Amino acid sequence: MSKIIDLSAPLYDGAPGMAMDPKISISWHCTLETLGYNLSRLVTSLHQGTHMDAQRHFYNDGETIDKLPLEHCVVKAVRLDLTKKTPDTPITPEDLKPVEKYIDQGCSVLLHTGWDKKFPDPSFFSGFPYVSKELADWFVEKKITLVGMDIPTPNGYDWKYVHVKMLGQRIVIVEGLAQLEQLPPDTVFTFFSLPLKLEGRDGSPVRAIALLD
Amino acid sequence: MSKIIDLSAPLYDGAPGMAMDPKISISWHCTLETLGYNLSRLVTSLHQGTHMDAQRHFYNDGETIDKLPLEHCVVKAVRLDLTKKTPDTPITPEDLKPVEKYIDQGCSVLLHTGWDKKFPDPSFFSGFPYVSKELADWFVEKKITLVGMDIPTPNGYDWKYVHVKMLGQRIVIVEGLAQLEQLPPDTVFTFFSLPLKLEGRDGSPVRAIALLD
Q1: What is the DSSP track for A41-61?
Q2: CB A11 within 8 A of CB B205
Q3: Do A41 and B22 touch (CB under 8 A)?
Q4: Nearest to B64 by CA among B197, B205, B207, B180
Q5: What ranges make up the beta strands (E) of chain B?
């Protein structure tokens, strides 16, 4: 059996999220003492923690998360080391050079900035290196299947341009990944990001993993 | 790449659940028109639809869903055809004979009753063929890793016995699977049931899939 690597951030009552999003809340609906079993109730944004976006997030007539082909959620991928990027600077097509050959062979990419280490500090949600408009265009040009990242959103400034461009071309965007340093460099792995089957919806929290041969 | 088979039931606003559980509700927190993007808020039991149980569901000091080793969530498994079972009758160790050799080789099992076809009718939640106390004991004896099923809970009568026995031995229980008929008979596949990383909690909804070579 392959080695399984967990690439997900924790979900818990009161965990921080994007400022405008509904707050996550998890409470005990019943317990061993009341009904004979413990069972929790979860309230969450569909974009809390490690999650993926559907086209519907930015298109009223867009593909919803339950319709996303699972072949776009289980992909060959490589990690790109961006841990030397300065905070609050754009990630450009030039930065992607080290993994371009893999992308040209059909691989997806996980952008490893190391920014996840700031979570759960509020500073996690701003000032991160970000996907430039040029890089969003480049991903479209390369017809990449999926782009994952350990930042909370691809770009805090030109967020509309980047999402509309990438989602418009059905590029799967996985945000809020964690612990990407566990993935070896220059190695193709299988990345799994399986959304809950939420009918008609705009995204889903996921438990993202990599399988290493 | 292997063939991916979706084994999950849909999640949607107002979908039926177990009578005592919190009701699932999904609504638009904001839209393209209000904040420039569509984003939903989900309220759900952690045991809605296709989901898995952690030991914590029946043990106050039990292992929580975020601590479940992922090696127990990605397993070799076979499907057992139980579609000829009469409603409201026990599934016994005798019924498991056709797949015993696979279980003895370390495989997990998915119990295919076909009961998922009743969803979302309220009749889905009662009257199903169920895991007998003897079968729960047999699973423990066989040291099986995971048992999946297309019924809403293993046993509606002796629910405490069956859960306590199986979870006590760290057997992963996946409930509410769907469309198991897509899996070929007498074939080992890889089953994925990856829980959200919900710290300190009793279960998780999942997108369950099988990979067929």
Answers
A1: EEEEETTSSSEEE-GGGT-TT
A2: no
A3: yes
A4: B197
A5: 3-6, 25-30, 39-45, 51-53, 74-81, 90-91, 108-112, 130-131, 146-149, 172-175, 189-192, 203-205, 209-212
A20 contacts on B by Cβ (under 8 Å) = 30, 35
Tokens of B161: 């016995």
Sheet holding A108-112, edge to edge: A3-6, A209-212, A189-192, A74-81, A108-112, A146-149, A172-175, A51-53, A203-205
The neighbouring-strand residues paired with A76 are A190
Mean of the per-residue pLDDT values of chain A: 98
CA–CA separation, A200 and A108 (whole Å): 26
Minimum Cα–Cα distance from A195: chain B residue: B207
DSSP B120-182: TSGGGGSS--EE-HHHHHHHHHHT-SEEEESSSSS-SSSHHHHHHHHHHTT-EEEES---GGG
Give the pLDDT of residue B213: 87
Two structure tokens written together for B31: 């839209």
**Sign for the pseudo-dihedral over CA of B91, B194, A147, A176:** positive
Residue B205 and residue B12 in contact, taking contact as beta carbons nearer than 8 Å = no
List of chain B residues whose C-beta atoms are within 8 Å of the C-beta of residue A195:
207
Task: Using CB atoms, pick whichever of A6, A42, A70 lies closest to residue B46.
Answer: A42
Q: Do A12 and B74 touch (CB under 8 A)?
A: no
Gap from B131 CA to chain A (nearest CA, Å) = 18
Inter-chain touch A70–B10, beta carbons under 8 Å: no
- Residues B159-178: tens digit of each pLDDT: 999 999 999 999 999 999 99
CA distance B7 to chain A (A): 10
Confidence of residue B30 (pLDDT cuts 50, 70, 90): very high
Residue pair A74/A81 in contact (Cβ under 8 Å)? The answer is: no
Residue of A nearest to B208 (CA): A194
Q: Which two tokens stand for residue B177?
A: 């699977």
Please give the model's pTM, rounded to 2 decimal places.
0.98
What average pLDDT does range B46-73 have in this prediction? 98
Q: What is the distance in angstroms between the Cα of B203 and the nearest Cα belonging to chain A?
A: 8
Residue carrying structure tokens 């990856």: B194
Which of the four CATH numbers 3.50.30.50, 3.40.50.720, 3.40.50.620, 3.40.50.1970 does domain B3-10+46-212 have? Answer: 3.50.30.50
B17 close to A (CB below 8 A): no
A147 beta partners:
A109, A173
